[in-house]
Specification:
heterodimer, A: alpha/beta, eight-stranded mixed beta sheet, three-stranded antiparallel beta sheet, globular, B: mainly alpha, Serine Threonine Protein Phosphatase 5, Tetratricopeptide repeat, two-stranded antiparallel ribbon, about 50% helix, about 5% strand
Chain lengths: ~475, ~210
């Protein structure tokens, strides 16, 4: 006890010095919970984590999972330099010109949840990009640390949450970890094959339209994806410049004939894929379809180069795809055909939404999900797969929709309402009768300070989702929940 | 075993304390070394991520040693001193970059903006323009770095924070976006914002883009 006090006193003295740094430093604690205690560390699996404990911990921990990230330099400790993981930093400036200080972000959840007595934690994962291959182990490293650390102890309840790719990690946790709750935000929850078949088909459409355009062709096989280097920024730029050559979304060609051809190809791309984003967002979508796919397919620790394509034998019928039947028929005749890749089995094993067996069958806690009705990246039909899987397994799930444009464009009030309603549901003695509706969340949002209809509260209670096969033809090896009954 | 572990901990933190005090006396970032430009020149509001110094009784350890402590608390090598600025050359390079952008020569524009930042790393405009181009080219992390620099150099300019918020929305890290949006509103108390077709923030008094 005495020696514990001794080291705490020293730590506090150091904290005073460390906190006195100039602008640009990360706050160890949010203003809403200035007396939190922060722990940082590394797992044995190559991941790093950060944990923040409130002053009066109620025993719950909310583990936040970040979105898709191809930057290898983010698999570093909290507040260490991206250019040198051995350097501690408080701000970008500590890492030398042009180098960022790495933060393991809670995306604002610490400010919302620490004052409620909840601990908040986050992991970097041990993988870049599509993390569900090992993310369950990464999360376990946090829990192992908490349990062993005498000043924390085993949490009473573990609630998993995350945005986007972190939603995929959250969905995976519901199926592969023994946890006590899940809140999914704009999650890519359709499972490995449906998610990456959509990306793969986006790439096939691009190849169909752009392979003959000078400077626009990707050299990689569409179901293997592009090579990622240690400089994810340079990779993204190279990809975007290629896509711009085909579509002219950033800068149309100076040649009016070619500029018109670029606009035509973009229009065809939108028509075939039913892409709901802008031309600029097509760049991002193509980043997922090329670099994002290549990152895990080529990784020896994940698919080790095993292809994941599958649109032949029997040939998939693309003739009804998109919004232009004439164009779709042309595409069906001209699309590259890929035999079933050997990587599909492993991708299935890593992420497969099914609540009728295994750990998923045992889920006895409610799941709350918030997604964008106009999300152009994590498209609404992805939610339909997970929602149907939960329904097939008889699980309690409330799906809510936000009408804002963009991917994961949620306000602070919407997020706060989501967690307040979730904990009220989780804490209730009868979770069936207390299941919140989307209208309940909307009312909770509007009741918050700053909650304004159509501004900070954009719940769309009337949105009706579509099935995934409305976008691309279903594959026979998809989970049952992904196939339209 | 446990006792020696604790003793080691104490020694590490004594060293950390001393090194931390030494570190505070080193030359800091370009941002700290030169006053902000433009609207931010008289800015006094706290930075987005300025640490709030708690009362001494509320101080908690900022970091505790984990089971597998791999992150040294002390910087091994001090950051290099701020580079010298050449605003005139930076201006030439910016002009070149803007001309390249107008002609649709994106690679040339990127190169010229990057060199402009190198020539004058204290210019919020250099960082801001380069950051926006990087953002549009989907290099979000690089964009965030430069947009953070721009906001720190010119904190009184709400547009810097709007740019930063938008890059965080694209990341996506909505929590960081909310914080940057708050800074935009603090910098421009009468600022009215709306969302564009991409879900990104823009000034409500900006003209609607064509085709929307």
């Amino acid at each position: 006890m005495k020696s514990e006090f001794g080291s705490t006193a020293l730590l506090s003295a150091f904290a005073l010095v460390a906190l006195a740094v100039p602008a640009g430093a990360f706050d160890p604690c949010p203003a809403s919970a200035p007396t939190c205690t922060e722990y940082t560390g590394a797992g044995k699996d190559g991941s790093f984590f950060r944990i923040s404990m409130p002053e009066n911990w109620d025993g719950d921990v909310v583990i936040y999972n970040h979105g898709f990230d191809l930057n290898q330099k983010h698999i570093r400790g909290h507040e260490t330099c991206e250019n040198n993981g051995a350097l501690h930093c408080e701000a970008d400036a500590d890492c030398g010109s042009g180098n960022a200080c790495n933060e393991i972000s809670y995306s604002g959840l610490d400010a919302l949840l620490l004052p409620k007595g909840k601990a908040v934690a986050a992991t970097t994962y041990s993988d870049t990009g599509w993390a569900p291959f090992h993310s369950a182990k990464n999360i376990k490293e946090i829990l192992k640390f908490m349990k062993k650390e005498p000043t924390i102890g085993k949490p009473t309840r573990v609630i998993i949450t995350g945005h986007s790719g972190g939603g995929a990690v959250t969905a995976d946790a519901t199926l592969n970890l023994k946890i006590d709750g899940a809140v999914i935000m704009c999650g890519a929850v359709a499972g490995g094959l449906p998610t990456w078949d959509v990306a793969g088909d986006v790439r096939l459409v691009y190849d169909f339209l752009c392979d003959e355009v000078t400077g626009a062709k990707f050299s990689s096989a569409p179901d293997v994806g592009e090579v990622n280097s240690a400089d994810s920024g340079a990779d993204s730029i190279a990809m975007a410049l290629k896509v711009n050559k085909c579509f002219g979304v950033m800068s149309p060609s100076a040649d009016p004939t070619e500029a018109a051809a670029q606009a035509g190809r973009l229009e065809d791309f939108m028509a075939l894929t039913k892409f709901t984003g802008t031309g600029m967002e097509a760049l991002t979508a193509m980043g997922f379809a090329t670099l994002g796919l290549g990152d895990f397919v080529r990784d020896p620790a994940r698919l080790d180069g095993k292809h994941i394509g599958f649109n032949s034998v029997p040939d998939l019928d693309y003739s009804t795809m998109g919004t232009d039947p004439g164009l779709a028929a042309e595409y069906d005749a001209g699309v590259k055909r890929l035999t079933k890749g050997s990587g599909r089995k492993k991708l299935t094993k890593a992420s497969y939404p099914d609540f009728t067996k295994g750990k998923g069958k045992k889920v006895a806690y409610p799941i709350l999900s918030m997604a964008g009705a106009a999300d152009w990246l994590v498209i609404p039909p992805f939610q339909s797969v997970y929602d149907r899987a939960a329904a097939l397994g008889g699980k309690l799930l409330t799906q809510t929709w936000i009408s804002s444009y963009g991917h994961c464009v949620f306000s602070e009030q919407e997020t706060q309402a989501l967690f307040e309603e979730y904990f009220a549901w989780l804490d209730s003695t009868d979770q069936v009768t207390s299941q919140p509706t989307p209208a309940d969340l909307e009312a909770a949002c509007l009741a918050l300070p700053g909650g304004v209809d159509g501004d900070t509260c954009n719940f769309d209670t009337a949105f009706v989702n579509t099935n995934l096969d409305d976008r691309i033809p279903a594959r026979s090896d998809w989970p049952p929940a992904a196939i339209n009954p | 075993m446990k006792r020696s572990y604790r003793r080691s901990l104490a020694l590490i933190f004594v060293a950390a304390f001393a090194a931390g005090a030494w570190w505070m006396r080193l030359p800091r970032s370009p941002v700290a070394a030169r006053p902000a430009e433009g609207l931010g020149a008289v800015e006094t509001t706290p930075h987005l991520s300025d640490p709030v110094l708690p009362e001494p009784t509320q101080v908690q350890p900022a970091s505790r040693v984990p089971v597998v402590p791999v992150v040294p608390v002390v910087p091994v090598v001090p950051a290099p001193p701020p580079p010298a600025a050449d605003p005139a050359r930076a201006e030439q390079l910016r002009t070149k970059a803007e001309a390249a952008l107008k002609k649709g020569e994106l690679e040339e524009a990127l190169e010229a903006f990057e060199k402009a930042v190198e020539a004058d790393p204290f210019s919020a405009s250099n960082h801001g323009d380069y950051g926006r181009l990087l953002r549009d080219l989907t290099a979000i992390d690089k964009a965030l770095y430069h947009l953070r620099q721009a906001a720190e150099l010119d904190p009184g300019n709400p547009d810097r924070w709007i740019d930063l918020a938008n890059a965080y929305y694209l990341k996506p890290d909505p929590g960081k976006a909310w914080a940057a949006e708050k800074r935009a509103r603090e910098a421009g108390p009468n600022l009215k914002l709306r969302r564009d077709r991409r879900g990104l923030l823009e000034r409500a008094d900006d003209p609607e883009p064509a085709g929307e």
